[in-house]
């Protein structure tokens, strides 16, 4: 399920870090913990996992912020309009009213060690789910709206981030998608597992790369690189496609990476229930 959220600045001259993904992810955790401490603790400390494996997934993601801004000091965004974003959860549809209620009229802060801006959640619009029949096999064209992160360690043990043009990108992203399905306990037949596929849709323009910094200015600072401005065609069971759409594609999805969209979804696919 997805929600379009409109923020109104409380702070005068709101300035946020250009690497706002980690602070914004922390805000979502905080809102969830205020409403359901057990669920938020589960996401933060454990997440969904496959068997006894070490890999864990947090089944939510969010879009890039949409706002008019001016860049200051190379790493600050001085906002000149009310920012909007879409927050996406892989949760039962019955939880829609609960999630909408815990965000509406909340005061939130987007901050790091240098700057802090306060906002009021003025509006929360529930977006319509994917319109695909339950139990069907479908092939859908998604637009990549926030960078998809895919990487692997090289022979020296260093992490290498892959472009969707790399031949290793597809099998790694497909494997990640299937692992998320297993973590969510989705039960598919051998034929359904075998038919799952992800195809990159590239035009003449190369996918745009982006580098973001997580926990900037701390000992735990990490840089991650991803790619956006391309499309993917995903084929699989309807439940797997819904997970991909709502939980995100690739790695670091709980930091706002791998957010996918259907054409014109942002503008027209919403309701007010």
TrEMBL record:
Record domain CRISPR associated protein Cas6 C-terminal: where: 140-260
Keyword RNA-binding: yes
CDD domains referenced in this protein's UniProt entry, alphabetically: Cas6_I-like (cd21140)
Pfam family, one: Cas6_I-A
Origin superkingdom: Bacteria
Keywords of the record: Antiviral defense, RNA-binding
InterPro entries hit by this protein: Cas_Cas6_C (IPR049435), CRISPR-assoc_prot_Cas6 (IPR010156), CRISPR-assoc_prot_Cas6_N_sf (IPR045747)
UniProt record similarity statement: Belongs to the CRISPR-associated protein Cas6/Cse3/CasE family.
Protein's UniProt name: CRISPR-associated endoribonuclease Cas6
Origin species: Christiangramia antarctica
């Amino acid at each position: 399920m997805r929600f379009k959220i409109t923020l109104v600045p409380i702070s005068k001259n709101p300035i946020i870090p250009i690497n706002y993904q980690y602070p914004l992810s922390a805000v979502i955790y905080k809102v969830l913990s205020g409403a359901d401490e057990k669920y938020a603790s589960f996401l933060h400390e454990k997440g969904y996992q496959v068997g006894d494996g070490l890999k864990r997934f947090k089944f939510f993601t969010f879009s890039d912020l949409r706002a008019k801004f001016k860049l200051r000091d190379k790493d600050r965004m001085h906002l000149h309009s009310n920012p909007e974003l879409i927050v996406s959860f892989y949760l039962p549809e019955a939880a829609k009213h609960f999630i909408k209620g815990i965000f509406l009229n909340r005061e939130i802060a987007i901050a790091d060690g240098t700057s802090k801006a306060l906002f009021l959640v003025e509006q929360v619009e529930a977006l319509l789910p994917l319109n695909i029949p339950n139990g069907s096999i479908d092939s859908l064209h998604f637009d990549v709206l926030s960078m998809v992160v895919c990487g692997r360690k090289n022979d020296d043990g260093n992490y290498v981030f892959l472009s969707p043009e790399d031949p290793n990108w597809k099998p790694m992203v497909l494997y990640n998608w299937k692992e998320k399905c297993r973590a969510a306990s989705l039960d598919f037949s051998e034929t359904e597992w075998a038919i799952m596929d992800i195809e990159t849709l590239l035009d003449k323009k190369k996918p745009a790369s982006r580098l973001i910094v997580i926990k900037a200015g701390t000992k735990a600072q990490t840089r991650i690189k991803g790619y956006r401005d391309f499309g993917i065609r995903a084929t699989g069971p309807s439940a797997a496609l819904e997970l991909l759409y709502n939980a995100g594609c690739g790695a670091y999805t709980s930091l706002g990476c791998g957010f996918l969209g259907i054409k014109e979804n942002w503008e027209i696919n919403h309701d007010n229930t």
